[in-house]
Fold each of these.
Amino acid sequence: MLIKKRKREDAEINGSSMADIAFLLLIFFLVTTTINVDTGIGLVLPPPLEDEEPPPIRQRNLMNILVNAEGRILMDEEPYQISEVKNRLIEFIKNPNNDPDLAETPDLAIVSIKTQRETPYRIYVNMLDEVMGAYKELRDEASRANYGVPYGALDEESPQQQQVQDMYPKKISIAEPGDS
């Protein structure tokens, strides 16, 4: 007697719920994914003036910086390379030799940055980094001289940090870009 083998059926995976699983996974990843938002350049704005009219500024205390459409930097109408900006600003703000063409005191020094609409963004950001770097270097120097530690090592909002900030306040004016 011959025993006939039964042919087995192939195993199948039920695919009817695959679309539901894919949809749930898609929703899960959309909900849990964070999207980085470009925050731009972070600057702390000064408090609003109590008076309607801003106080008068002596031309001596104002460093005008223009970054033109070609990416060239003019500081008080003299051309400078980006690498020279920080040292020139430190000299302007500190005025170690009491030069009549530089700021009277660090407290009165104002840096005004103006660009043109066609100015390359990279050059503008590098320029702003140099200005911030000049203030950082001045504050580090003052903190080391007075407290023996760099400015960044001082406790947040401590009297020492406030004193260094008062010695070298960041007075930066960023003007609206001009067409020419």
Amino acid sequence: MRRFAWQDQTDEQDTGIDVTPMLDVVFILLIFFIVTASFVKETGVEVTRPTADTGTSREGANIVVAIDNQNRVWIDQRQVGPHAVEAHVARLHARNPQGSVVIQADAASNTETLVTVMDGARAAGVPDIAIATRSGR
């Protein structure tokens, strides 16, 4: 039996699946989820919050300011002076203008320090300020 030239070619062509486009899509999805994820903000200091029976839950706070029992102010795990709160909050608020400020004041902290921090946050242009409490119920 005579074979033609085109019959000599094997039918065993590359039958594997090209996964390069799939890897590109997975990589793009990974970047998308990393960029859009909201991370839990931690203050870096242990605070004993006061109890409140009328407290409500709040979502979406992106700036957390802590005041410890020695009246030291903490933002982004760094200690700052009470009068420097305005500059730090303004910088963080510029990143997310829709965010709010939550102040975690220790039960043993001064009211004066709390008011100074609240004034600094309002002076930075943040209208939505809350004080974190524990549920009293």
